Amino acid sequence: MDIKINEFNNKLKYWIRGHGHTYETFAKAMGTSHRNVSRWARGERLPRWHEAKKIFEFTNNEVTGHDLYEQQIQRKEADL
């Protein structure tokens, strides 16, 4: 498995833990469910654009659009 596949998920997971949040507290700050955050962190689902923008802002761009974009490209290439 290519490391870039998990870049967004790992950065998100480590940011949440490293800043003293749980998936639940992060979800509340994002205005979404704990289940969504858990799915993003496990790589089962990617956030929608409006959710991603909130993540970038809330993490002060420590989790970036580049991380998410790279993962989407990798997934599309894997489907080919």
Key descriptive features of the protein:
disordered N terminus; 434 Repressor (Amino-terminal Domain); 5 helices; mainly alpha; 80 residues
Describe the fold and architecture.
The protein is mainly α. It has a single domain (3-79), classed as 434 Repressor (Amino-terminal Domain) (Orthogonal Bundle). The protein has five helices and no strands. The protein has helices at residues 7-18, 23-30, 34-42, 49-58, 65-79. The radius of gyration is 12 Å and the shape is globular. 18% of the residues are buried. Mean pLDDT is 85; it is low at 1-5.
What distance separates the N and C termini? Answer: 16 Å
CATH topology: 434 Repressor (Amino-terminal Domain)
Question: Given this structure, which CATH class is correct?
Answer: Mainly Alpha
So how many helices?
Answer: 5
Spans where pLDDT lies below 50 across 5 or more residues: 1-5
Output the CATH homologous superfamily: lambda repressor-like DNA-binding domains
Provide the domain count: 1
Please tell me the overall pLDDT: 85
Instruction: Return Rg in Å.
Output: 12 Å
Largest sheet descriptor: none
Shape: globular
Helix content: 55-70%
Strand portion, in percent?
under 5%
The structure class reads: mainly alpha
H and E order: HHHHH
